Amino acid sequence: MASILPQTRSAAVNPLKSSQPLGAAFAFLGVDGAIPLFHGSQGCTSFALVLLVRHFKEAVPLQTTAMDELATILGGADHLKEAILNLKSRTKPKLIGVCTTALVETRGEDFAGDIATIKREHAEELAGTEIMLASTPDFAGALEEGWAKAVTAMIEGITRPGERARQSKRIAVLPGWNLTVADIEHLREMVESFGLQPVILPDVSGSLQGTVPDRWIPTTFGGTSVEDIRDLGAAAHCIAIGQHMRCSAEALQRLTGVPYMLFHSLTGLNAADRLVSFLSVISGAAAPAKLRRHRGQLQDALLDGHFHFAGKKIAIAAEPDQLYQLASFFVDMGAEIAAAVTTAGTSKILEKIPAQAVQVGDLADLEALAAGTDLLVTHSHGRQAAERLGIPLMRVGFPVFDRLGSQHKLTIVYQGTRDLIFEVANVFQANQPAPRPETLNPFRNREMPDDLPSSPLARH
């Protein structure tokens, strides 16, 4: 069990984490016809918007209540009301996701009461639009917690409560933030191959996949529909991916009685087998032939790739669930986790990280711990540390803004694990020093002692 080392510095030198409100906005972006609304200053929203746009290379509909100095002192209820009513009248969204920031959270306002009042006093104007609140102060938690709070808020605020008639083929899927667009698309196809009907919340593969609509749309385009969220209680089972999604799955079970199965990771042969076995049991169908072929390809990749991983030292900095996903993958391949850094120390998954210790900190901590390792694994902000240390960098997580296609990389189940093996092995091969003649032949140019007896053959 890994020991969790608390943060030792009061300031971040090279920040690793993204904020809770950004994580909540990310989740709201996975709902069709939605607009995330930051309740705070324009600067908070602008910074988050820049990160999202640079990562996805897409137009992101992120809005703000634009709190000024006066509203910060006297209260922001009027700004919140004005923003909600303006968004409703101008863009006709199906969902407005309110993400609070440290500016208003520090003041201690009653956001839930303010929103309830706005909905009651303007019920006719706001008809047809769901307004969700995620309490996400910047000064606590990180992107992972913000994502989970937004998903939980949507389940508690939209899903019809109470036991309902189960649709045996309907499956609720709650993916973690670290699943890419490609991962979610692949997961949907995999569930459907068993004859099941997945409802994925949130579904960023629909809204952030790169589709170019034929007209300007001020809200998200694609994703989970509000109607599907409302009918989640009709699912026969729920699949939650990542420890941070346990609270959302528990909320769904508490409200509707839908049982859930939690998967800490879907990367690796054992994790993929566990998911396939579960889908086979709940569907009553055998694994499709295509999946069996993909499993065989992964087994072959494991054989081909493990030579390149054995004995390698890896340094990883990521959110807790992604840290577990990647660390488990590397250890299964025969590598060693020499440095593990994460954003917050509250997740129970950190105890399962296959490393001696997990440091809560930033990328400066990673740089200090990573000397002598063979690979750095983190997002694009780790590129300076990798350059200073002379260690190759594998870009994962959020944000990745200096490479194209990060959201279309597959990282889960059989094909995703196979692709990860090839990607990392190729990095190791590309950074392997070229052999020199003296290293190939240890007897070349060696010095001979003068007092050795001459060979008997030489005397004859």
Topology:
Blueprint: E1 3-5, H1 20-28, E2 34-39, H2 42-56, E3 63-64, H3 69-74, H4 77-91, E4 95-100, H5 102-107, H6 111-121, E5 130-134, H7 143-158, E6 167-174, H8 181-192, E7 197-200, H9 204-207, H10 226-230, E8 235-241, H11 246-256, E9 260-263, H12 269-283, H13 289-309, E10 313-317, H14 320-332, E11 336-342, E12 357-360, H15 363-369, E13 375-378, H16 383-389, E14 393-395, H17 413-430, H18 437-440, H19 456-459
Parallel strand pairs: 1-12, 2-3, 2-4, 4-5, 6-7, 6-8, 8-9, 10-11, 10-13, 11-12, 13-14
Describe this protein with a few key phrases.
460 residues; alpha/beta; Rossmann fold; six-stranded parallel sheet; 19 helices; 43% helix
Question: Mind explaining what this structure looks like?
Answer:
There is one protein chain. This protein has 460 residues and is an alpha/beta fold. The protein has three domains: 18-140, Nitrogenase molybdenum iron protein domain (Rossmann fold); 167-209 and 217-287, Rossmann fold (3-Layer(aba) Sandwich); 295-430, 3-Layer(aba) Sandwich (Rossmann fold), CATH 3.40.50. The protein is 43% helix and 15% strand. The chain has helices at 20-28, 42-56, 69-74, 77-91, 102-107, 111-121, 143-158, 181-192, 204-207, 226-230, 246-256, 269-283, 289-309, 320-332, 363-369, 383-389, 413-430, 437-440, 456-459; strands spanning 3-5, 34-39, 63-64, 95-100, 130-134, 167-174, 197-200, 235-241, 260-263, 313-317, 336-342, 357-360, 375-378, 393-395. The strands form three sheets. It has a six-stranded parallel β-sheet, sandwiched between helices. Strands 3-2-4-5 form a four-stranded parallel β-sheet, sandwiched between helices. It has a four-stranded parallel β-sheet with strand order 7-6-8-9, sandwiched between helices. Helix 2 (42-56) links the parallel strand 2 (34-39) and strand 3. Helix 1 crosses helix 7 (143-158), helix 7 (143-158) runs parallel beside helix 11 and helix 13 (289-309) packs parallel to helix 17 (413-430). The longest helix is centred in the middle third of the chain and has 21 residues, at 289-309. The model has no long low-confidence stretch (mean pLDDT 92).
